[in-house]
Design brief:
The complex is a heterodimer of chains A (about 350) and B (about 250).
Chain A (H helix, E strand, L loop, with lengths): L1 H16 L1 H20 L2 H4 L2 E7 L4 H14 L3 E5 L2 H9 L5 E7 L5 E7 L4 H22 L20 H32 L1 H5 L6 H31 L7 H25 L3 H18 L11 H7 L3 H15 L6 H24 L7
Parallel strand pairs in A: 1-2, 1-3
Antiparallel strand pairs in A: 3-4
Helix pairs in contact in A: 1-9, 2-7, 2-9, 4-6, 7-9, 7-10, 7-11, 7-13, 9-10, 10-13, 10-14, 13-14
Chain B lengths: L5 E12 L2 E12 L3 E5 L6 H9 L6 E6 L2 E2 L4 H5 L2 E4 L11 H11 L6 H7 L15 H12 L6 E5 L7 H16 L3 E6 L2 H7 L2 E6 L2 E6 L1 H10 L13 H9 L6
Parallel strand pairs in B: 3-8, 3-9, 6-7, 7-8
Antiparallel strand pairs in B: 1-2, 1-4, 4-5, 9-10
Classes of the chains: A alpha/beta (about 350), B alpha/beta (about 250).
Chain lengths: ~350, ~250
């Protein structure tokens, strides 16, 4: 027992002295959260409206802008002459171009140019503008509106990007520390003869294995805590669900990826071949398992396949618990737990069948 | 020969890798408190032989009894009193020498005085260094030190001086002699005949998986001379190594 403790502590010590490992397991995930958290994807979708006007029609433009601004910061306003604005529209840099002029008889002529690639959005924006103008007209003519429509904005559990992202990055970092940690240790130790030297002492192999699993698990738990706490401090992420269930899912995920690490260590003979197996697994899962963006954007066939990856189970499971407050009675959480468990069993079976202590056995 | 004096008995030991016999039916005994050398060219089967005796490699056929323990049946018990230095041995990357020694001591449930151990082999100034910061010679010396953490009765040294400069080799020889003075039994492999002559009480010469002969270095030389062997070069009173050591001194460099 003392051996196990001492060895476990040593492994943890070695991990934190290995700058590469610390960067991969702690700094990298946090940087990802920071970068993606600071980017404002809603802003990227902002709609530009070009106004063409003259002195006389300026007041209308001002009031249109005012109304549109009240809806949110979705709209950005540009102005210029008609040719410039139409060119920008042709280059897909405008949602809508409004040419507003007032003639000598004080009649207001409006011509709207709509972006075809985003016609629906352009149409609805135009409707808002038309409504604004007719309100204007009613006011001018002092006519009471016949219909009175009241609207109320209802709060929903809005998923911010950062709320979506954090569970995914936590899952990804659990995968990477399990996979890289175990493979890095086992394959390198085997290749360099360190395993052989260890077992020239009375150290039982089981003690070595348990210390590996235990230390990696402790490192992973620490990693999850650091990621969640720092995301909370920087972005005020909101964990709706039970922290216990988050911990349970994360632990199961971590053990599953440790088992994957042992599987790869069994199949790969050398550090090079281990890397060749590990990198595609890491990359493919990282981008198809809903870590950074929803799997909804994937083509159907890929969507169908990737629902079964261990990283999808883990990131979806964590996300459902953290952002939606789902618990074990919800089918999606149960699916995640069962999916991870199945993978865990599969990885353990392959590991037992392929694992080798010796370099050339 | 008094059988009880044999601390290691090897009987009809064999090991076959996929298509060749690495060790072919060899037998020998090692006496208590002797330095027993296993000599032979590369690929002779030296390392395979001692790794089977150490319990690190599965035995295909034959028996190894070490201090009255059948190594095949009870390797973990034997490992308690074996000190093993492997030919190529790397250690943990991010632990310093003191930490590695203490950790290894823990594997034997022993508290280790790492400073004393490192002093013995002139590495005390490196106690806080990492393995990768050591020179090749220093790493070899660390290997021997690690084999000593459990104060072993029996030590296996696999090519302990390969790659060392003459100064470091002399230090290692003296150190190995001291180990014999401490009543340990030592099994040593080497490519250097002068090393075997200097250190070994008896040697086994192996080639192609078989033991060709076993005797004291002196007897082997006598036997050869009896056959009428004559060295062509006149023996000089000194050799180039003596010149080298005379010029560069015997003090350890690193």
């Amino acid at each position: 027992m003392k051996k196990l403790m001492k060895l476990t502590i040593s492994v943890i010590k070695m991990h934190f002295r290995d700058k590469g490992a610390v960067i991969w397991t702690l700094l990298f995930p946090f940087i990802i959260i920071l970068i993606f958290g600071l980017l404002d994807f809603n802003n990227a979708e902002s709609a530009k409206i070009g106004f063409v006007y003259n002195e006389k029609s300026k007041e209308y433009v001002t009031s249109i802008k005012e109304v549109l601004s009240q809806i949110g910061n979705r709209y950005k306003f540009e102005e210029g002459n008609l040719d410039e604005e139409k060119k920008a529209l042709a280059e897909d840099d405008r949602l809508l171009v409004m040419d507003i002029s007032v003639n000598e008889e004080n009649k207001v002529n409006i011509k709207a140019y709509l972006n075809k690639s985003n016609e629906l959005s352009a149409q609805s924006t135009l409707l808002i503008i038309q409504k604004t103008l007719s309100d204007f007209e009613l006011q001018l003519n002092r006519i009471e509106p016949l219909f009175n429509v009241e609207s109320e904005v209802v709060n929903v559990n809005e998923l911010r990007n950062i709320d979506y992202l954090v569970p995914g990055v936590v899952a990804m970092s659990l995968m990477q520390s399990g996979l890289f940690g175990v493979v890095g240790t086992i394959v390198t130790y085997r290749e360099k003869g360190i395993l052989k030297r260890l077992f020239a002492t009375p150290l039982p192999k089981s003690t070595f294995l348990i210390s590996q699993i235990l230390s990696r698990l402790l490192i992973s738990i620490l990693q999850v805590i650091i990621l969640l706490v720092s995301s909370y401090i920087v972005f005020k992420i909101n964990i709706v669900g039970s922290l216990f269930l988050v911990a349970l899912t994360a632990t199961l995920g971590s053990i599953t990826f440790l088992a994957l690490g042992f599987t790869v260590s069994g199949i790969a003979k050398t550090t090079e071949s281990a890397r060749a197996i590990m990198m595609p697994i890491n990359m493919l899962m990282m981008f198809t398992s809903g870590v950074y963006f929803s799997r909804d954007v994937l083509p159907n066939w890929l969507y169908d396949i990737t629902q079964f990856t261990p990283l999808t189970y883990l990131s979806d499971g964590l996300r459902d618990v953290m952002t939606k407050g789902y618990n074990l009675t919800d089918i999606t959480v149960r699916t995640a737990i069962i999916g991870l468990s199945v993978w865990l069993v599969v990885f353990i079976i392959i590991s037992i069948k392929t694992f080798k202590w010796e370099k050339n056995a | 020969m008094n059988k009880s004096k044999n601390i290691i008995q090897v009987k009809n030991l064999s090991k076959t890798y996929s298509n060749y016999k690495a060790v072919n039916n060899i037998s020998f005994n090692v006496k208590k408190n002797e330095i027993f050398g296993i000599l032979g060219p590369n690929g002779a089967g030296k390392t395979t032989t001692i790794e089977m005796i150490e319990g690190l490699r599965e035995i295909d056929s034959g028996d190894v009894t070490i201090n009255n323990i059948d190594i095949d049946k009870n390797p973990s018990k034997a490992k308690e009193f074996l000190g093993i230095q492997l030919q190529s041995s790397d250690y943990f990357d991010n632990l310093n020498l003191t930490e590695i020694l203490e950790l290894f001591g823990e594997f034997y449930n022993k508290k280790v005085d790492s400073q004393e151990l490192l002093e013995k082999i002139q590495l005390s100034s490196k106690s806080k260094s990492l393995v990768r910061e050591l020179s090749g010679g220093q790493q070899q010396r660390l290997s021997i030190t690690l084999a000593l953490v459990n104060d072993p009765k029996i030590m296996f040294l696999d090519e302990p001086t390969t790659g060392l400069d003459p100064q470091a080799r002399r230090l290692m020889w003296n150190f190995i002699n001291d180990l014999r003075e401490e009543k340990r039994t030592i099994i040593l492999t080497t490519h250097y005949m002068e090393e075997a002559e200097f250190l070994c009480d008896r040697v086994a010469i192996m080639d192609k998986g078989s033991v060709l002969t076993i005797d004291t270095p002196n007897n082997l030389i006598k036997k050869l001379l009896k056959k009428g062997f004559k060295k062509k070069v006149k023996i000089q009173k000194a050799n180039l190594e003596d010149v080298f050591l005379d010029l560069t001194g015997k003090k350890l460099r690193d």
